[in-house]
Every structure is written in structure tokens, then in C-alpha cells.
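A.,

Following up on our hallway conversation. C-alpha cells first:
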């Protein structure tokens, strides 16, 4: 295939345990895999995603019809400010206010600030949660991140779906992870199968319940449900607000319920 260049604003680098890095504004389409990845990026709204200043969503696990909330997220994408809320035992709530670029911040339980050492551990844990959960939400926006190796699995592709393979070269917290992304003819992600570097067998999830979200540069398409046999990963309560009060990144008492209700 003759190589060509295409304009694409990429997201953050790495897989579910990757490290955010700015992606290229122009990517080279040197292979069939590059072209397929570009089709996915265009169909899902990668350009528009880059223009969204804030991201709000929840990460939950559904098993046997029961939804268990794991983390609630608010991200200021342009400067790395982050708020994560996590339910704890009883009626306690952990709030971590940190920066994804510096990986430093503060942690609170029920509004009481933790000392430096336990806070540092919670910030590190929140950063790992950010990497994992944002990848589940936005993997199609990250296909051209630095260190991502793209291929096509011809044996798994069929008349209705082509399979894009993803591996990682020296990026992320778990660079040995592997992904197989099922892509429909229109460029939308149908499913993915992944094999984590420490796992013995792969897992497959169908990407479902897509919705479009407005951003300054256009529309972003995101799936709120990733369905496997017997359970689902939920990336729901999604919003791309154009403005967010600074207090949500500075005041542990400004809970995300208030933001969701428009307060």
C-alpha cells in the first residue's frame, strides 16, 4: 500500500495501564492496519474528542443484573486536573484530587484529608484507575498513540467485521497486553478481545449502547456498555461539559452528584 498522511488529533498514549502522552496531529497511513485504525478514529470522533475540555463518567461492573459502582470520574483534559470518587465500606467515600500529568495530589475520606503517606498511595491507585477506566471509555481514540503497534488479524476477519490487532512497544504499565478489535464496515467498534500480560486466557466484550456527545470540534461516539458472558463493564453517566467550576478539582466536599444535577 502506498503510504500517505492524514490529519488526526490523537488522545493519550498507552493501553489500560498506559501513561498519557500527547498524540500526533498528523499520522502516516503506511499499512492497511493504519488505514483501518484511521477509519475507526474518524467514525468514533477522535478529532472531536480531542477538543472536549472536560470528561465526566462512571466506571461500574454489572453482574447478574446488579450494578456495582467502582469509580466516578471528572477530568480536565487540557491541564490534567482530576477528581475521582470511590465508594468504600459502609457509607464512606474516598475523594482523590490529583493531576494526571504530575501524578501528585491529595486524598480525603468523608471530607477528612489523609496524611502524606496514605494519600500518596491513594493518588497512585487513583492514577491507575484513571488509566484503566479511560481506556475502557475511549480506546478507539487512542489507536495512534505513541508506542501502539497496529496490525490486522486476517484469520479472524470476516465479511461483516475486520479485526485490528494492538500491541505496545515500551509504553504503559503493562506493555505485554494484547488486543483484538472487531471493526464493522462503517468503522464502529463492535467488540474487543484482550489478553493481559499476566493472564492465561483472553476475554471478549461486545461494545454496546452507543451515544453521541457534542464537543467543540464535532460529535464523539462512546459506548456505555461492554458486554461479556455473565457480566458487563459499564462506562456510563457520560458527559462532555464545556465548563466546570474549579471547586470540583479543589474542594473534596463538592461531590459529583451536584455536578450531574446541574448545581
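Then the amino acids I'd put at each of the 263 positions:
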Amino acid at each position: 500500500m502506498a503510504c500517505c498522511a492524514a490529519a488526526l488529533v490523537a488522545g493519550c498514549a498507552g493501553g489500560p495501564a498506559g501513561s498519557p502522552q500527547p498524540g500526533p496531529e498528523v499520522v502516516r497511513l503506511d499499512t492497511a492496519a493504519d488505514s483501518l485504525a484511521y477509519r475507526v478514529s474518524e467514525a468514533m470522533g477522535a478529532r472531536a474528542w480531542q477538543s472536549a475540555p472536560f470528561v465526566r463518567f462512571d466506571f461500574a461492573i454489572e453482574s447478574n443484573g446488579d450494578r456495582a459502582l467502582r469509580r466516578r470520574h471528572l477530568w480536565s483534559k487540557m491541564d490534567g486536573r482530576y477528581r475521582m470518587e470511590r465508594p468504600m465500606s459502609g457509607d464512606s467515600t474516598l475523594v482523590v484530587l490529583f493531576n494526571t500529568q504530575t501524578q501528585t495530589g491529595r486524598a480525603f475520606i468523608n471530607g477528612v484529608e489523609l496524611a502524606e503517606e496514605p494519600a500518596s498511595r491513594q493518588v497512585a491507585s487513583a492514577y491507575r484507575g484513571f488509566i484503566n477506566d479511560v481506556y475502557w471509555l475511549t480506546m478507539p481514540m487512542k489507536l495512534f498513540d505513541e508506542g501502539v503497534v497496529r496490525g490486522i488479524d486476517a484469520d479472524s476477519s470476516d465479511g461483516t467485521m475486520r479485526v485490528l490487532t494492538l500491541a505496545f512497544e515500551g509504553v504503559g504499565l503493562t506493555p505485554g497486553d494484547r488486543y483484538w478489535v472487531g471493526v464493522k464496515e462503517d468503522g464502529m467498534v463492535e467488540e474487543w478481545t484482550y489478553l493481559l500480560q499476566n493472564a492465561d486466557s483472553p476475554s471478549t466484550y461486545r461494545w454496546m449502547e452507543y451515544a453521541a456527545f457534542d464537543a467543540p470540534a464535532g460529535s464523539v461516539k462512546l459506548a456505555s456498555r461492554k458486554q461479556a458472558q455473565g457480566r458487563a463493564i459499564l462506562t456510563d453517566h457520560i458527559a462532555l461539559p464545556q465548563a466546570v467550576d474549579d471547586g470540583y478539582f479543589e474542594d473534596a466536599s463538592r461531590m459529583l452528584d451536584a455536578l450531574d444535577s446541574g448545581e
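The chain has one domain: 4-260. Curious whether your intuition agrees with the design.

B.
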